[in-house]
Predict the structure.
Amino acid sequence: ELSILVDVIGMVKGLGSLLQKSETIFIDLCWRHIHDVMQSFVHAMLTRPMRKAYKAKRNHILEIMKRMRHICADYIPGAERGNDYLQKKEEIMQIDYKFPGRFTPPSVDQVVLMRRMMNFICSERAEGNKGGFFGKRDLKKEWQEEWLKIYDNAFFFQYVLNFKQSLRQAMDLSFLWYREFYLNMTKQPQFPIDMSMPWILTKFVIKGVQMKENMFYPMEIYNDAAELALDYLDQRYLFDEIEAEVNLAFDQLLHHLSNEIFKYFKTLAGSILLDNRLEMAFEKFRQGVLKVPVSRYTTLMSQQTVRLLGRVVNLQVLLGQYVLKKFRKNISGILQKFESQPLSYAIEAKSYLDNARLAHALASKHLPLDSFDTIFKEYDGRVSLTQGCGKIAAQIADELTNEIFPNWTFCSGTRRFVSGIVHARKHEREVRKVRLEKYYWHGHNFHIPNSDLQGGSKKYFGAEHVHALLDILDPSDIPFIIKEIIGQIESNLGGVLMPSMEKVQAVLQKAPIAPPPSHMGPSIAYQGLLNNNLVKAVKSWSALKSLFFQSLREIGNSLAFVHLLESCMNERNDLRFSQVAFYTAVKPHPTPAQGQIPLTPFQYEEGKESPFHSVVSKVYEKLGGGSLMQQQIKANMDKTERYMKCNIEPTPSIFAATLRRVSDILETVEVFDGAEPANGVLDTHSGSDFARVFSVAQFLFCVSPKEEMDGKETQRVFEEHALLGDGFAWGGCALVHLLGYSARFEMLDLCNHILSIAEADDLTKELGLTADQLKKLPQSSQKMNTGMLQTGALEQFMRNAKYTRSVNNFVFSTMRAYCSVNPIKDLRFSPPKPT
């Protein structure tokens, strides 16, 4: 019943509005029709009944008919027919009755008198229509049907003549709000709002699904009730009561409508962004769940104004304000959720922002909304001139420096950071519970497939996450993040690594560490280094791993991230280059000169015409170039080319700039250079420079740690590489390269020395000792338990050393490609001349 009532209200108000707009057209046509019907009746249809009454001596009936013609007839001047009923039937049938065609309607009194006299003659209860066996009827049966039809239609003439008043009364639905009779029955001052008919209809439309187009029709009841209260009842308190109820109902209506519109556009955006193959696979298991509802809001959003209580309300502006609040709430929730989660959730945050951005773009086609970038900058805190960076940039920098770099391990092969087994530093982030409905993220029913799609990317941090961060970040925030990373590197160099370096140097300066003899095989070389007193002293330092290793890990993770960031930015620049290459004259992949900073892999060549410019210019010349459209095409082409040229300008490398900044920091610290060599050239057995310290540290890094269980030594499950990752090698090799010791390190590294021995000895495939090697051992060494040399510790060391060497080579090649450092000047010595 409620749905039918809403439809009826919509029909009444819609049709009435159309009639009001077309009143000047309808009123003339209606008046002409009434005039023609009445004149046709009193001239043509009344003649034969008058003849019948005359012949039957029914003088009083004849007199009534004459008066009817006298009151209502409109004659052409000079063509009056007063006695036409006296003619014969055949003559009457041949008479062509003519009357003037006027748009002047009869008066209401004329219509009422004519109907009263017609009723006296044609009514079934009239004396002349009773008939009988010997009696005759005043009207024949076929005449009576025509008379009754005209009589019934003439009932509406008086309402049509008062067109405005009748239309207003027909459209007046105020009786649906005024129910004073029921108030008297219940002895209540006023019904509660839940019993108000307009409010009942409004709630029904709000909760309904298929009646969104009729959403504002129940509001017309309030308009009619308010008009009646002011114009006819003169009761101000009634109008105030209606106004209060309207404010509540209209606010609830806008709130629900904006919520439904926002949900629809979020769902539509989720459907567009969801991968088609995933959607098809998901539909096989849950059919019909990912169905986007049919839009029923286009008509409402295209309606600009609504009339309420005599005021014209701009519906588009109000809906835009309500929907804009939803988008603001959505963006605020996304940022709060991003700040409460680790950076491995960056892809999820990007998907939320992509959905919100697309939904905002779709809604902006129908509603006046602020730009998405403006809203995003406002909640990110980048609208103030005094704000150094946005909240997102500060959060990313904090997560990188306090969570990723100290606690996560980096893998050079996959270019990913993975959460470490043991966290060296406890990072506490502010956890905010974001209580939003599920459709705020990916739309209605699209949250589950998107969450499943992004679930695998939450366990690591890699290139995909960096691309997501670059999409979220403003380009001006990247220098701030790099600055924070460099600040952490400087803090590790000066506050942690330098004191640790001094302690290790103090141990290594006591005595030289002689490289083991190569003829004894890798087992003896490994065991000899492992039993060296200085190596044992360094290994026994309790803070070696917690301070020295950890600081190198943080420095290496920082540089690895900057390199990853550089690679991702180059990938994006390459994609942009492929998009604009046709529009501009560019040269791909230019080779930089020796010592020059690497630039982005494309540059603009002056004086060369782009393919796009060449094609359009030739077409423009062939067409003549005279029409306005051709000139506009030419102008737009030139603007496009200038814009594209601005977007392909080469930019310096941020990784190279970071390395130069770290190199400048190292120049201020002398402890990394160590003591001067005793021979003035190079100490092969001793030395306290960073290359020798890092070589000893990397040797201990590759050694499998041991622990005692029941008095027996066993290999620990977790290797140092599993705890620290490749960041240790990245940090140490980067510092070695920037200090100019890369060649010295590669020549004198302890791990490389053992690997070289193993590679040179063909009989050491089993990593054990041959019979000849055992004979060459001293008597004291022959008593050594050779079984221990063939255990898994040596095998694990060789595997660790080989992997570490591959990482070192990769890091050194990367460093040489981005930053060339002047090595230590070589001294040449010539043999003595023969005397």
